[in-house]
Amino acid sequence: MSFNVTADPNHVLDTLYAGTDFSSLNWAEQKWVAWYVWWGNPIIATGMISFLMHEVVYFGRSLPWIIIDAIPYFQKWKLQPNKVPTPQEQWDCTKQVLWAHLTVELPAIWLFYPMSEMVGMKTYQVPFPSLSTMTWQIAFFMFFEDLFHWAAHRALHTPLLYKHIHKIHHKYSAPFGLAAEYAHPAEVMILGMGTLGGSLFLCLFTEVHFISFFIWVIIKLFQAIDAHSGYDFPWSLQHILPFWSGAEHHDFHHMAFTNNYSTSFRWWDRIFGTDDKYLVYRERVKAAKAKSSNNEEFMKAEQALMDEVLAEGLREESAVEERLKKKSKVQ
């Protein structure tokens, strides 16, 4: 097995992979070994593959939505069709996202290896865990992150945290793919703990490999970007899995400023009653569709409902900031 290395490959192999039967490894595991041997340092290798994966997946998955926004044909599935992001908005959003990636996510990625080592997570080691093990662990990560996100997101809507942190993310009442991580660096750090926390917590009870976490982050990026896409297609996942959140669920949160705080699933909002306004809205849309004699009439009625929800959301946002001002004056 040959490697392109920046350090002495024999030393790295003896240090990291002593006793490993390389002939028993599959293609992916061999490439994993090659990556770590090439860098010669597991901290650097883990940090680099994490950061590169994040950037490639985030902007790669956002690109199709940028293209879709530029093609009028797809507007029939746009949840808020009168709010298509302009190229300037896309670029402004990109700059903020890159800033958060460089100031928060990049340092956090370099700290991940030491943290994972402390709790016993495997990183450079091979072979990988079985498919069944990775599947149930990733399912746990999703469950953990969804509950964490619901609680943290709900907290971010309290007056103090909203004004100084979360308000940036609510700049767009009609979100688009790139806006998934358009947020204050502090929010990126807070919500990122939900993504990291499940894997670190699970290490306290069982063996976890970094590859499981790696795959989970890819899934999470797809989920977050798609939830902010602003499109609801007939083939979107929420029409197959009714408990899946999706863009239709999260778009209401941006439009109404309230409700629908969870990320992947709908059940925490249903359990805690934080989807009450959303459910009323969906019933009103359904009633408007049944009452309309044609699609044009329905679209006008739906737009009127959206305008009403947005206006109420703006009033609620102002009320939150007003409560903070009053509290500041009292203190």
Automatic annotation (TrEMBL):
<keyword id="KW-0812">Transmembrane</keyword>
<keyword id="KW-1133">Transmembrane helix</keyword>
<dbReference type="GO" id="GO:0016020">
    <property type="term" value="C:membrane"/>
</dbReference>
<feature type="transmembrane region" description="Helical">
    <location>
        <begin position="199"/>
        <end position="219"/>
    </location>
</feature>
<dbReference type="GO" id="GO:0005506">
    <property type="term" value="F:iron ion binding"/>
</dbReference>
<dbReference type="Pfam" id="PF04116">
    <property type="entry name" value="FA_hydroxylase"/>
</dbReference>
<dbReference type="GO" id="GO:0016491">
    <property type="term" value="F:oxidoreductase activity"/>
</dbReference>
<dbReference type="GO" id="GO:0008610">
    <property type="term" value="P:lipid biosynthetic process"/>
</dbReference>
<feature type="transmembrane region" description="Helical">
    <location>
        <begin position="33"/>
        <end position="53"/>
    </location>
</feature>
<dbReference type="InterPro" id="IPR050307">
    <property type="entry name" value="Sterol_Desaturase_Related"/>
</dbReference>
<feature type="domain" description="Fatty acid hydroxylase">
    <location>
        <begin position="139"/>
        <end position="274"/>
    </location>
</feature>
<protein>
    <recommendedName>
        <fullName>Fatty acid hydroxylase domain-containing protein</fullName>
    </recommendedName>
</protein>
<dbReference type="InterPro" id="IPR006694">
    <property type="entry name" value="Fatty_acid_hydroxylase"/>
</dbReference>
<keyword id="KW-0472">Membrane</keyword>
